[in-house]
């Protein structure tokens, strides 16, 4: 299963088009005279390395606003199922059919795992919702879910062994179990 | 009167009026070395610098540095440089050269970098006949990370990962890169030199010049292997390390030209180096 994509024009990241870093040979005389340039990622000197790490951290912090997710039927939900990828789609069907049976369940589907949409999940936790993480592995994203909601709630976990492809029916029982657990 | 070596523009006398007969090449930076005493990377760097001066390439060169002790080549050589991920220097150089075919592009790689993790990149770059020059410094170990076994480690040689000595049945035979590269279609020049003696260093420089010139003449891929010492990881004094090259490395890694393409760009014949041992060679 694939996410739908929205094509967009890439932004020009470098308006100078490399004038400040392009490697084309360093003139040592005349008008274009400049020092040689080095493009590298290895910074071993003491302060230099810390400086590089600071720069990288700023970049990771800036990424946080790219966190993306989908919610489905969460408004009045008592239990929110958290699932991503293929399992997110299957869980959505399970939630849909449980809603048809009048169960107050919803879905939170992270579209990005890194950065993780922690703020949006925390907001749901603050509203008093409970959580069930369903994963196609033995529990990886659940760590991020639990960290995001930790001040207000916890998350149950239901795992499907990788190698088995579950159907929406397989999720109904675990979701009802978690919904019933107060 | 001895001629001044190196930088053509270098002053002939110093502040105290003494005549200078040996100076730093113009395309090298004036800074103290970080290499271990007796390490041959310094000599190989200097040969690169001298040739860039002599061929007038300084302002038109992009150096592709690799991962290993010599990643810091760019701190010593005064040309535009890029650092490639481990083993990937020939791939990065391919990109640089194809984007700017007018530039002189060379890689400088160790044996761990080129013959181990980067085996695929070097083989295909040579086979494609990329117009680049490769300086391959073979010191039979992963120097930077503490002397682990490399594909070039000699049979019986002790390293931290083969403390009992490399064993042919377990780790295979040391790989002779020049012999392999010479067989590939795009190689225009391929030779092995050594940095263990003044005589061999002079010869190695001639090979390097040829490996550089097949690129500037557009003939194809230029490759030169340099047998080099790593006294630190060999646990030898610099002098004993030089002797090891002479006594143990050269008999297994014969010196000479392995391929030389004629001027019209068609592939020349394979040349058997005079000292080549039998097919198995080594000990
Ligand atoms: C992808 C990756 N794998 C491993 C390393 C660790 N590493 C750094 S240098 C090196 C070996 C270098 O040996 P060589 O190319 O022979 O250079 P020398 O230091 O001997 O001149 C290794 C394995 C790395 N930097 N990157
Ligand atoms: S460890 Fe070996 S290759 Fe590295 S600088 Fe020291 S002598 Fe040279
Ligand atoms: Mg090495």
- Global structural class of chain A: alpha/beta
Radius of gyration computed on alpha carbons of chain A: 24 Å
The averaged pLDDT of chain A comes out at 94
Largest interface: A-B, 13 and 19 residues
The sequence of SSEs of chain B as H and E is: HEHEHEHHEEEHHEHEHHE
Task: Tell me what portion of residues of chain B adopts beta-strand conformation.
Answer: 15-25%
* Basic shape of chain B: globular
Beta-strand fraction estimate of chain A: 5-15%
Biggest sheet of chain B, in brief?
Answer: 7 strands, mixed
Strand tally of chain B, please?
A: 9
The CATH superfamily of chain B bears the name Thiamin diphosphate (ThDP)-binding fold, Pyr/PP domains
Strands side by side in the biggest sheet of chain A: 2-4-3-5-6
Structural notes for this entry:
The complex is a heterodimer of chains A (182) and B (283). With 182 residues, chain A is an alpha/beta fold. Chain A has a domain at 66-180: 3-Layer(aba) Sandwich (Rossmann fold), CATH 3.40.50.920. Chain A is built from five helices and six strands; from the N terminus they run βαββαβαβαβα. The longest helix of chain A is centred in the N-terminal third of the chain and has 18 residues, at 46-63. The two termini of chain A are 34 Å apart. With 283 residues, chain B is α/β, with parallel strands linked by helices. Chain B has a single domain (35-271), classed as Thiamin diphosphate (ThDP)-binding fold, Pyr/PP domains (Rossmann fold). Chain B is 33% helix and 16% strand. Chain B has helices at residues 41-54, 73-76, 89-99, 111-117, 119-128, 168-171, 177-182, 198-216, 231-234, 238-252, and strands at residues 61-65, 80-83, 104-110, 133-138, 141-142, 148-149, 187-194, 221-227, 256-260. The longest helix of chain B has 19 residues, at 198-216. Chain B starts with 40 loop residues before the first helix and ends in a 23-residue tail after the last strand. Chain A binds chain B through residues 23-28, 36-42, and chain B through 26, 58-62, 65, 71, 74, 77-83, 96, 100, 103. Strand 1 of chain A pairs parallel with strand 2 of chain B, so a sheet runs across the interface. Bound molecules: thiamine diphosphate, iron/sulfur cluster (SF4) and magnesium ion (MG).
């Amino acid at each position: 299963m694939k996410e739908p994509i929205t094509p967009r024009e890439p932004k020009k990241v470098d308006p100078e088009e490399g004038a400040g870093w392009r490697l084309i040979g360093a003139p040592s005389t005349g008008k274009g005279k400049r020092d040689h340039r080095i493009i590298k990622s290895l910074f071993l000197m003491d302060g230099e390395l810390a400086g590089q790490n600071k720069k990288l951290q700023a970049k990771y912090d800036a990424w946080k606003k790219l966190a993306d997710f989908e919610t489905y039927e969460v408004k009045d939900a008592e239990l929110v199922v958290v699932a991503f990828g293929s399992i997110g789609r299957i869980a959505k069907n399970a939630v849909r059919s449980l809603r048809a049976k009048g169960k107050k369940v919803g879905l939170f589907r992270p579209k990005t795992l890194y950065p993780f949409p922690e703020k949006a999940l925390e907001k749901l936790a603050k509203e008093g919702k409970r959580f069930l993480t369903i994963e196609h592995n033995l529990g990886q994203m659940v760590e991020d879910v639990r960290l995001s909601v930790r001040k207000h709630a916890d998350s149950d976990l239901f795992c499907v062994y990788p190698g088995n492809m579950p159907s929406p029916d397989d999720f109904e029982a675990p979701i009802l179990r978690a919904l019933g657990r107060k | 009167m001895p001629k001044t070596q190196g930088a053509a523009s270098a002053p002939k006398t110093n502040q105290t009026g003494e005549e200078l007969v040996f100076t730093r090449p113009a395309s090298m930076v004036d800074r103290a070395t970080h290499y271990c005493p007796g390490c041959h990377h310094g000599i190989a760097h200097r040969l690169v610098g001298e040739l860039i001066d002599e061929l007038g390439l300084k302002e038109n060169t992009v150096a592709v540095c690799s991962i290993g002790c010599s990643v810091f080549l760019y701190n010593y050589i005064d040309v535009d440089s890029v650092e490639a991920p481990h083993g990937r220097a020939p791939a990065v150089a391919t990109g640089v050269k194809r984007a700017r075919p007018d530039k002189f592009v060379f890689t400088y790689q160790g044996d761990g970098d080129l013959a181990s993790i980067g085996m695929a990149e070097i083989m295909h770059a040579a086979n494609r006949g990329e117009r680049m020059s490769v300086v391959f410094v073979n010191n039979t170990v992963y120097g930077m990370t503490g002397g682990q076994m490399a594909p070039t480690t000699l049979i019986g040689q002790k390293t931290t990962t083969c403390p009992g000595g490399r064993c042919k049945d377990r780790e295979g035979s040391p790989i002779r890169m020049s012999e392999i590269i010479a067989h590939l279609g795009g190689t225009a020049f391929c030779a092995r030199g050594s940095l263990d003696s003044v005589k061999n260093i002079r010869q190695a420089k001639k090979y390097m010049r040829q490996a550089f010139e097949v690129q500037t003449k557009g003939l194809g891929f230029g490759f030169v292997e340099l047998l080099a010492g790593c006294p630190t990881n060999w646990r030898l004094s610099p002098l004993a390390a030089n002797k090891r090259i002479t006594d143990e490395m050269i008999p297994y890694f014969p010196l000479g030209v392995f391929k030389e393409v004629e001027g019209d760009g068609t592939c020349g014949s394979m040349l058997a180096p005079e000292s080549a041992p039998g097919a198995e060679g080594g000990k």
